[in-house]
């Protein structure tokens, strides 16, 4: 088992290196750099000399290969450098926002699973009845409605019903869990609805498929209670394909939610990313992309390990 | 344990005074489909008496499984339902029970064993869990009691090391072992009745014999009545006391096994019996077939449903036949049952096969020399194991003859066929087709060779592209290989090919799903013929087909060989089928040839103990012969090819093996003229 994990982690290295290579050089291909944005924006008239000095300060004058090498050296030693815009260490810039984004993502995942598992199962069990149609309408709506728009509806609802609006400052879960949850539950719901819809639809079809399997007939022929036929015999098999979707969606959400964060006034990874891109903050963009790549890879690994726990066929092969 | 059973004991006279344990009375089952209502079971009645073994026989779609599922209350919902009749179990009508009353009955009083052991167990639950379930639900045992009883049950069905195996999962069991687990599950609550739906169809012949012996032994020891549903008359000859034959949703004949096998009184039963090639009779010419196809139950014909396919058809058959009472409980739904024997005698005997005699001295069409194939398979934790799927296989196929390759699953017979076609590259050895080594043939030479070597696959359901019409399927290779210059010419040739394989040219516009299994296999043969090959590899071409259709396809192959001088490599697991069609036979075990001989020599005097065991395990559709045969069931299962036994790979199962056998790999040597065997004891 450990061997397998180590092997998988080792396989990540070439993948991450390719991501780094692509991000680094693609960023440099785009015309313009941070110095231009910083100094010449708003029609500022700055002499070329000042610009060159700033470039030298930021290390942008060095050959690309050297810059790339410096960055790689930094990554290996867990020193991600400083933001070209704010001058703050990147680990700090990301650190203060990562907790929030991860928390929203995890809460959305919990919300999604709590909604999707019963909804998808019930929908499959009562296939083509009014219950199924209702669930299908709800899930289709979940896919069709943009999360930020749902977020705006939630805020409007909260404002008009309870005269409550999202606080401007973020409270950490560890300082005040109630305040923290009451702030983050709403974006989690807004995002979780779509998430739940994706998972529920996946689960509906995999439950339908599992119900056709011979072993379900065997279970019924043994006289197993119908409830157990579903919970013990059908669901564990049906959840396997759904887990992949749950994992991928979670990794996606952890990478930040650009518009939803805006709507709920959250200072998360999504917003940081947008700011970094508009400012051509190369060092920050690079590191964010790498972080998201790592998240995807790790979540995928966890999903595969979870597969092994749930499906004995995987472990023993 | 199995040897203690005395198969030869006289069948207990049916205690007719006794009340039946289960009585299906005038049962009707309907399914709603998108194309209308199908009455899959239409007024069927059968009884099972305590302690007896009753077999329900018929081809696919005749309603035999559906009637069993109706008994269990397991019809696919909401499409299927019982539309009439009663199912009496004791004094209770099962059709009137509530869902929860039925659930209490299932697994406790009536248990079921299904066809597919590979998919009938839940892959994510341990065997122990699946065994314990009915014990805890029906008998209220606690976990500890259930575990103890489960260990006992696994021992009962012959699974060694039961305590450890309880914690394993289905994928760690072989097919035969899984079917034993299914039987153990059925036995958990000591049911009064077990319904086994094609319990051995998916298993190899030696494993089939083990499982059937086990079921018979246990049902006798524990006094459980057994209903065996099958399409194979051979397997029930040995085990069934009584038979019910079904056709197109109705019962056409019933009686004791002796009555039905010795003197069938319905032309369908007769047809089923005569369409299977038999090991206990000399090779006949063409097989008797039942022409045509079963009727479509969406719109069943009026009158006798078999009339359309019946050689005895007369005006009287326009009326619905009742089940006529004949002597001693035998009943037949044929108006002309009294004329059957007379009419049969008047029928001309099948013409003998013109023996395809290879002319001496002529070079064989195909020569295989020391062929070997190694596969690297993952064995977990990133490691790989070596499987020698085929090892040192050599044979010749003379022009115009058929070589049969026979063996159980995993013996390497399909791999040999694939290497001959260069669909799988060989590890070493030579395949010489008309003297050309196909391994070293250039791409251009291979393209030419492909025209001359074709293949017919086992599964007619998955080997045709579902999105291509039959015409397109046949045209494609002709256009690719320039057998036809243009589309019109290809169409014409396809029509001719369809006629050649006994289909109408109009079939060209249809799609595979609109065809029956037999028709699809005919299309598969037509596709092979389109290239005008001189050699065809037939990889289990009839094993997925019903017996009456199987006979049609085998007759077609025989006919093609006689008229076109075709050469076949015929790969199969059914000894009787191989014998019927082949001139020479190669028996394989775990990648090696263990015996090779001319067909008649091999069956008259099998030399290798494995060939003998295979022949012993092959069922013969005759209860008198079967019950006199000793229960010489081959023990154990084929060893894992990942870790084959040393020396003779068969020594672990061989009754004649001694210490020597583990040390020497026996060479294939000529024991009699032209008769080779790989055994040092000969």
How would you sum up this structure in a few lines?
Chain B: Keywords: ATP-binding, Cell membrane, Membrane, Nucleotide-binding, Transport. The complex is a heterodimer of chains A (317) and B (682). Chain A has 317 residues and is mainly alpha-helical.
What integer is the average pLDDT of chain A? 86
Query: How many structural domains of chain A?
Result: 2
| CATH fold node name of the domain at 366-399 and 409-454 and 570-677 in chain B | Rossmann fold
Helix content of chain B: 25-40%
Identify low-pLDDT runs of chain A: none
Largest beta sheet of chain B: what is the strand line-up? 6-7-8-3-9-10-12-11
- How big is the Rg of chain B? 26 Å
**Most extensive interface, chain pair and sizes:** A-B, 27 and 35 residues
Approximate shape of chain B: globular
The string of secondary-structure elements of chain A, in order, is HHHHHHHHHHHHHH
Largest sheet report of chain A: none
Helical/strand content category of chain B: alpha/beta
Largest sheet, strands/sense/barrel of chain B: 8 strands, mixed
Per DSSP, the total helix count of chain A is 14
CATH architecture of the largest domain in chain A: Orthogonal Bundle
- Describe the oligomeric state of these chains in a short phrase: heterodimer
CATH class of the domain at 366-399 and 409-454 and 570-677 in chain B: Alpha Beta
What's the end-to-end separation of chain A, in Å?
A: 11 Å
């Amino acid at each position: 088992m450990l061997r397998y994990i180590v092997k998988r982690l080792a396989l990540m290295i070439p993948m991450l290196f390719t991501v780094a290579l692509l991000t680094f050089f693609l960023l440099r291909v785009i015309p313009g750099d941070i110095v231009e944005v910083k100094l010449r924006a708003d029609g500022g008239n700055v002499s070329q000399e000042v610009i060159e000095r700033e470039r030298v300060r930021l290390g942008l004058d060095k050959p690309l290969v050297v810059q790339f090498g410096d960055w790689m050296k930094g990554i290996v030693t867990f020193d991600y450098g400083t933001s070209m815009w704010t001058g703050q260490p990147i680990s700090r810039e990301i650190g203060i926002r990562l907790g929030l984004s991860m928390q929203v993502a995890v809460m959305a995942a919990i919300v999604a699973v709590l909604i999707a598992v019963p909804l998808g199962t019930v929908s499959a069990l009562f296939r083509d009845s009014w219950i199924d149609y209702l669930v299908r309408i709800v899930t289709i709506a979940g896919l069709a409605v943009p999360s930020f728009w749902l977020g705006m509806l939630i805020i409007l609802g909260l404002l008009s019903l309870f005269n409550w609006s999202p606080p401007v400052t973020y409270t950490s879960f560890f300082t005040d869990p109630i305040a923290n949850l009451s702030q983050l539950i709403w974006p989690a719901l807004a995002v979780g609805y779509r998430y739940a819809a994706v998972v529920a639809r996946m689960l509906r079809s995999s439950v339908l498929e599992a119900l056709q399997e011979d072993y379900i007939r065997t279970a019924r022929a043994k006289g197993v209670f119908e409830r157990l036929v579903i919970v013990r015999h059908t669901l564990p098999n049906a959840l396997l394909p759904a887990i992949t979707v749950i994992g991928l969606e979670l990794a996606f959400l952890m990478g930040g939610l650009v518009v939803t964060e805006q709507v709920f006034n959250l200072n998360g990874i999504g917003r940081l990313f947008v700011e970094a891109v508009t400012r051509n903050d190369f060092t920050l963009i690079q590191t964010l992309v790498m972080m998201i790549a790592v998240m995807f890879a790790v979540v995928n690994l966890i999903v595969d390990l979870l597969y092994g726990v749930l499906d004995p066929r995987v472990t023993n092969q | 344990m199995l040897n203690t059973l005395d198969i030869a004991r006289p069948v207990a006279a049916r205690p007719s005074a006794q009340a039946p344990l289960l009585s299906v009375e005038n049962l009707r089952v309907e399914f709603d489909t998108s194309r209308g209502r199908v009455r899959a079971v239409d007024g069927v009645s059968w009884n099972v008496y305590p302690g007896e073994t009753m077999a329900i026989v018929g081809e696919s779609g005749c309603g035999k499984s559906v009637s069993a599922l109706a008994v269990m209350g397991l019809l696919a919902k909401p499409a299927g339902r019982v539309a009439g009749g009663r199912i009496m179990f004791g004094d209770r009508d099962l059709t009137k029970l509530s869902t929860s009353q039925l659930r209490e009955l299932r697994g406790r009083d009536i248990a079921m064993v299904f066809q597919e052991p590979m998919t009938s167990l839940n892959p994510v639950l341990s065997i122990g869990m699946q065994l314990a379930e009915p014990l805890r639900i029906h008998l209220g045992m606690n976990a500890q009691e259930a575990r103890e009883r489960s260990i006992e049950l696994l021992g009962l069905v012959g699974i060694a090391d039961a305590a450890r195996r309880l914690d394993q999962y289905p994928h760690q069991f072989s097919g035969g072992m899984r079917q034993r687990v299914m039987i153990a599950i059925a036995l958990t609550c000591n049911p009064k009745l077990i319904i086994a739906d094609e319990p051995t169809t998916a298993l190899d012949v030696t494993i089939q014999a083990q499982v059937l012996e086990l079921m018979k032994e246990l049902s006798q020891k524990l006094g459980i009545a057994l209903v065996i549903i099958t399409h194979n008359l051979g397997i029930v000859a040995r085990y069934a006391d009584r038979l019910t034959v079904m056709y197109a949703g109705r019962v056409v004949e019933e009686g004791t096994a002796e009555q039905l096998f010795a003197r069938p009184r319905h032309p369908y039963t007769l047809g089923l019996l005569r369409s299977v090639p038999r090991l206990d009779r000399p090779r006949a010419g063409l097989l008797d077939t039942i022409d045509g196809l079963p009727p479509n139950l969406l719109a069943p014909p009026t009158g006798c449903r078999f009339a359309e396919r019946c050689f005895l058809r007369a005006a009287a058959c326009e009326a619905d036949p009742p089940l006529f009472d004949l002597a001693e409980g035998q009943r037949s739904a044929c108006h002309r049952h009294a004329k059957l024997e007379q009419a049969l005698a008047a029928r001309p005997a099948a013409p003998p096969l013109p023996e395809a005699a290879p002319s001496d001295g002529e070079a064989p069409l195909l020569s295989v020399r020391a062929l070997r194939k190694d596969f690297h398979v993952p064995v977990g934790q990133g490691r790989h194991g070596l499987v020698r799927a085929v090892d040192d296989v050599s044979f010749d196929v003379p022009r115009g003859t058929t070589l049969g390759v026979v063996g159980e699953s995993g013996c390497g017979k399909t791999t040999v066929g694939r290497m001959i076609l260069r669909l799988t590259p060989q590890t070493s050895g030579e395949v010489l087709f008309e003297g050309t080594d196909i391994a070293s043939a250039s791409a251009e030479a291979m393209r030419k060779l492909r025209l001359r070597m074709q293949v017919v696959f086992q599964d007619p359901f998955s080997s045709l592209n579902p999105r291509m019409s039959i015409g397109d399927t046949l045209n494609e290779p002709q256009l690719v290989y320039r057998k036809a210059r243009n589309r019109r010419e290809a169409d014409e040739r396809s029509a001719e090919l369809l006629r050649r394989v006994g289909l109408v040219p109009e079939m060209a516009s249809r799609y595979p799903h609109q065809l029956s299994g037999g028709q699809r296999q005919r299309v598969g043969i037509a596709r092979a013929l389109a290239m005008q090959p001189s050699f065809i590899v037939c990889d289990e071409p009839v094993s997925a087909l019903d017996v009456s259709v199987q006979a049609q396809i085998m007759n077609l192959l025989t006919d093609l060989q006689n008229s076109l001088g075709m050469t076949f490599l015929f790969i199969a697991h059914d000894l009787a089928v191989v014998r019927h069609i082949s001139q020479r036979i190669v028996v394989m075990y775990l990648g090696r040839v263990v015996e090779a001989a001319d067909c008649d020599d091999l069956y008259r005097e099998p030399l290798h103990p494995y060939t003998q065991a295979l022949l012993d395990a092959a069922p013969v559709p005759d209860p008198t012969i079967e019950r006199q045969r000793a229960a010489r069931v081959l023990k154990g299962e084929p060893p894992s090819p990942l870790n084959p036994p040393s020396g003779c790979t068969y020594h672990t199962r061989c009754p004649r093996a001694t210490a020597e056998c583990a040390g020497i790999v026996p060479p294939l040597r000529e024991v009699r003229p032209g008769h080779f065997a790989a055994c040092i004891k000969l």
